[in-house]
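Hi Prof. W.,

I finally got the AraC family transcriptional regulator prediction working! I wasn't sure whether to trim anything, so I left the full sequence exactly as given:
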Amino acid sequence: MQYLFQLSRVYNAVHLISIQHSSAEQGWEFPNHRHTILEFKYCIKGRIEHKINGKTYITNQGDSVIMKAGVYHQMKVLEDCEFFGFHFDMEMPTVYSIFQSIPDPFIPANLGGFIKQWVNQFMSDFGSDFSQLHHLPQTTVHYSVENNLKILKMHSSFVEFISSLAKFYYEPSQVLDDVVHSSHLYIAHQTAFELNNTEQYDLQIGEIALKLNVHRSHITNCFKEVYGVTPKQYLLQLRTQKAKQYLLETNLTVEDIADKLSFSSTAHFTKFFAKQTGSSPSHYRAKREM
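And this is what came out:
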């Protein structure tokens, strides 16, 4: 037998924590806050002021903003508005890092034509289903098979859009090949390779430095120059995503997961996971039962 085509274990979880289509009157505002997930907002009409990491951005019809995980942000409605947004997380560190290293959170309407097209198509395809699927946060919902199929189709649309959004940010970053010294690119890519392929989640950068025969501070500088985060932050993302995968896909106990991910104790793992996700391991695992 000759394989003409084969892929093994094609898996990538994209978590949609909340999807929101809302209208708000002039003067309404949401206070300064931050969270451990990514957030996207698209202005359908009106005018909205966003303060992201201390900098002000004004979105008008067709403009969008994306908030990195961990960044403080707030919004205020300057004119009666309507907007569409969602919070999301993903278990593909390389793509996650694209969003975490974006230089500018603002996407003007003239550059975001593909966003307007997707939002309009999404609302056309699923807008009439919102009333059936709508529920408040922190409530347990048992959907019918028909509604679960709608949600699956809706989710696939989001995955395709998030992929387009990541590509939008990634393609301009290709200028790195011209701006960043080739030796820096090599060190950053080799470090990412080592981090992505290790099972030692307490791996020290010094170990990679010895393997690459460079100083650990040089590795950190090169990595941040290319990926926008430090190797330590990148490894934290990998560790968190692996923990989520174990919790959702296996029946391993929390104690076993803590051991697999090189935590000194279950309590240490639980504290780490709660800090990274805002949820305890047991509460996060309960998602798969919903």
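The mean pLDDT is 84. Does that look reasonable to you?

Thanks,
D.
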